[in-house]
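For the sake of transparency, this paper describes our internal protein records without simplification. The remainder of this section carries one protein's record, kept here as part of the documentation:
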Amino acid sequence: RSSPDVFESRMEKRNEVKKQPVGYSNQGEFIRCMEEKARPIFFAEGLGTKTSKGGFTKDKTLDSILNVEMVKEKSAEEIKQIWNQYFSAKDTVYAVIPADKFDLIWKRAQKCPSFLYALPRKEGYEFFVGQWSGTELHFTSLINIQTQGETAPSQLVLYHYPELQKEKGIVLMTAEMDSKFLVVREAQCLANQVQLFYATDHSKTYALVETFNHRSSEFKYMSVIAELEQSGLGRELRPGQVSDKS
């Protein structure tokens, strides 16, 4: 595994940077057909397909995914249901974030645009650097940065869309990932950690983000693992471990 200690001196140079089965009943089949017919009304499928290096969509706007003008007539709860239902049928990470929570994340991201995240593996942890670029959050494994430097490609990108934040009080999020390196539940673990560290009410937890960005020589990566283990995030990624949730 790569050591974050090697990475500290490089950070100063890197500032830019499920499907709910419908069922087989006649009623279920009818609902599925109706959803298929309604989908093009709200979602602009097939658009926004220009890809950048690494296969990620370049300039992935909300308009390229969603018929924004049409959903403006809907309530926040209705938009949330539409968004969640649409993406639940896709192998990706998605969320509807309350405006006040995203506002906190966004303000902190401006001051602290990068952080080191830990992803549980069969043995130990693999570290990923998350780097904000506008409202996109790019994740790259630490070992790739150490070996490829500034040319290291993203392996996960979280796209946040604040277009409806003022009017509806929600921010929509979806993602793209490199399936050669990550599966959905691993990407979800990284996405959940963004809220764990950037939206926390605990000053001690957010202090890790501040230390990483502004006092890197004092940063202790074991503190990230401790916070992660205390939160319970990623337990399902450990083989043989049973979640506490029934």
